[in-house]
Structures are given as C-alpha cells and as structure tokens.
Amino acid sequence: MTSLLTFHENPPLSLYIHLPWCVKKCPYCDFNSHEFTSTALDEDAYIDALIRDLETELPRIWGRTITSVFIGGGTPSLFSVASLNKLLSALRARLNISSGIEITLEANPGTAEAEKFRGYRDAGINRLSIGVQSFDDKNLKALGRIHGAGEAHRAIHFAKDAGFENFNIDLMFALPNQSIDAALQDLQLAVDHAPTHISWYQLTIEPNTVFYSKPPKVPSDDMSWSIQKQGQEFLRVNHYAQYEISAYAKDKQVSAHNMNYWEFGDYLGIGAGAHGKITNVAEGKIERFTRHKIPKRYIELAGSESVITGTRKLEQDDLSLEFMMNAMRLSNGIPANLFIERAGIPIKKMEKELFLAEERMLLDWRVNRLQPTVKGQRYLNELLEIFVK
C-alpha cells in the first residue's frame, strides 16, 4: 500500500490559462499550439469553455487563494481585449484573487497593437512577457518568427506607453550561426529598453518540431557555453541578477508565477493541453492533471470530467526527482525544509542521493539549504539523474 504524504498546510496555488493559437507555428516550438485561421479560432466559444472548465475545478481548490495568474500559449495577444476582459471578470467572480497579484500575459511583437495593450492593462493584466527572441532580422527569419526587429522595438514601446512598468523580454541564444558579439548585441538592445525581467535561454532542438527533422547549424557546446558565460556577466554588470537558469531580474522583480513552479507550489491549469499539479492535504496526495490538447475537442468537453485526459498520482519514489527538477533550476536553491512542506516526506528519504550529488560537486547541501553549484547548474541533467529511482 502506498504511504500517505504528510502536509501541514496547502502550498501556494497559481492559475495557468492556455490559449493555443498562433499566427504561425515556429520550427523550434514543441508547445501545444495551433496555427490561427478565421474558422479555427472562435474566441467566444473558447472563453466560455475556459469558464466552464474552471467551474468544474472549483471543488478541487475550494477555499484556496490564487497567488498568480499566467495567460500563455500559443499567442494570447491574438485574443481581443473584450475576450480577455470577460475571462478575467469570470475569474474574479469565482476565485479568491487579490487585486495586487501578478497577472501575466504572453504577447508576440507580430500581434502587438497600442490600443490592445492599453485595453489589456485596463482589464487588470499588470505584467507582459514579450516574445522577442532576437533583435536581428536574420536570426528572426531563421527562427521562423513573423515579426522583424522594428516590430519588436515597437511592441516594447507600446507596452511601456500603455503603463506596463513590469514586463519581461524573452530572448534566445545559440541561434543558427550566432556569434558571441551578436548574442551580446541582442542583450544590449534588450537592456536599453529597461525591462524589469529578461528571460534568456538557449535554443534547444526538441522532438516533434521542424528543427528536429531538419536541424539547423547551431553553435557548438563550447561556443554556446562561452556565449552563456559572457552574457551572464553582461547582465550582471547591468544589474540583472540571475535567479534561475534562464531568468534575470532587476531590483528583485522576479516572476512570481514561475517562482511558484520552481518552489514546487501547486498550479491549476485550464485550456487545451494545459497541465496542473494539485496537493490534497486531507487525503495526503499530490496529483498531476492533463487536459485534452485539441482545441475543438477541448471546447466540446470543457465543463465535464472528460476534458481531463490524464491523471497521475505522485508516489514517494517520484517526489525527490520531481522536486529537484524544479528547485535546482534556482541559482540560490531552496530552504531544505521546503522539501517536506511541498513533497510531504522527510528529507532523509533522499539523503543518499544528496550525499552523492555533493560528492560529485553538483550540489551544496548545508544544514538549512539545498543549492546547485555552478557545475550543477551547467550539468543539470547529470545532477537530476542521481535522483532517478
């Protein structure tokens, strides 16, 4: 018989909402996204489906407070202000959401409009994550993006003019044939806009993508590491502190939503293909949920349990790896007692693995903290393999 997990209280709970349409599918993208056509996207039907989906989830999270909201995709900025306003109003009517929490919307420069951004701000969205990827037209073309560098700069200006003081710029590095100087130039142009947050991550070739079947020529591992090291130093001297493998914040304005993931908090996911993780304190269990990924079928099933295509209860043997996969992305690690608080089992259950990770100089394990070393973050997969059971 599987032992129950022991929790003293619920972890923080975030809400993720997936809007799965894009103007064009990028060749590196492995997210659940679908190309937009005038017949494929019925905004009203999808927003109504999201609301029905949420209502069926309320018993699972009854009485809990939502600590952050993230609207991702796809390209959520394809949706009208009216649709997102309707959605946010429905959330406020059904959930315990304080007015000051972080509500993030992903936006792409190719769908940016000044009036839209002002409308999103008026609707209650207070943080944007702008998917720039590069400020170089040649790189943007290689990545299959629909926008150019000029549109990227304009989108950022639209965001600032609309009153978004808190915004993230998404950038990639180790792009096809990219030099160190070109990568640093992207960072310089991003810093010039003074965002509160920069996500700067390496292009990876994922299965089930166009790039996987037709791989581009990307920089070698050594060149990619050189780009990363010089970029990290550039961001540091420009007052962007690295707090996660690919996340850099100015004045400690970290992403509250992503921090909850990395600290193994709970999150409710609604929308086509959305994932969720919910702790049940009374029953001593943690479960993961997956929703139907095809938008048309999702709309048909939303409001019934059939919209959930997968449920998995995390067993004790799963939890060390599941926890460390998230926590070890954080540069400063996590308090050691967070493991029992969020995983529901004593840390001694993974003592052998922790000693081995420390012996291999991948982990710094102090009395009250678990922190990856520089080597541990560079070779994160090697660190995580220790916790596979």
Feature tags:
389 residues, alpha/beta, TIM Barrel, Arc Repressor Mutant, subunit A, 3-stranded antiparallel sheet, globular
User: What number is the mean pLDDT?
Assistant: 93
Main sheet properties: 9 strands, mixed
Count the domains: 2
**What low-confidence regions span 5 or more consecutive residues with pLDDT below 50?**
none
Our estimate of the beta-strand percent is: 15-25%
Strand order of the largest sheet: 9-10-8-7-6-5-4-1-11
Overall helicity: 25-40%
Topology:
Elements: E1 13-19, E2 21-22, E3 34-35, H1 43-57, E4 65-73, H2 81-94, E5 96-107, H3 114-123, E6 127-133, H4 137-142, H5 149-161, E7 167-173, H6 180-192, E8 197-202, H7 210-213, H8 221-237, E9 240-244, E10 247-250, H9 256-262, E11 266-271, E12 275-280, E13 285-291, H10 295-301, E14 308-313, H11 316-327, E15 334-335, H12 338-343, H13 351-359, E16 363-365, E17 369-372, H14 374-378, H15 380-385
Parallel strand pairs: 1-4, 1-11, 2-3, 4-5, 5-6, 6-7, 7-8
Antiparallel strand pairs: 8-10, 9-10, 12-13, 13-14, 15-17, 16-17
Helix pairs in contact: 1-2, 1-10, 2-3, 6-8
Structure write-up:
The protein is α/β, with parallel strands linked by helices. It folds into 2 domains: 13-260, TIM Barrel; 316-389, Arc Repressor Mutant, subunit A, CATH 1.10.10.920. It is 37% helix and 24% strand. It has helices at 43-57, 81-94, 114-123, 137-142, 149-161, 180-192, 210-213, 221-237, 256-262, 295-301, 316-327, 338-343, 351-359, 374-378, 380-385; strands spanning 13-19, 21-22, 34-35, 65-73, 96-107, 127-133, 167-173, 197-202, 240-244, 247-250, 266-271, 275-280, 285-291, 308-313, 334-335, 363-365, 369-372. The strands form 4 sheets. It has a 9-stranded mixed beta sheet, with helices on both faces. A 3-stranded antiparallel beta sheet has the order 12-13-14, with no helix packed on it. A 3-stranded antiparallel beta sheet has the order 15-17-16. Helix 1 runs parallel beside helix 2, helix 1 (43-57) crosses helix 10 and helix 2 runs parallel beside helix 3 (114-123). The longest helix has 17 residues, at 221-237. The protein is globular. The model has no long low-confidence stretch (mean pLDDT 93).
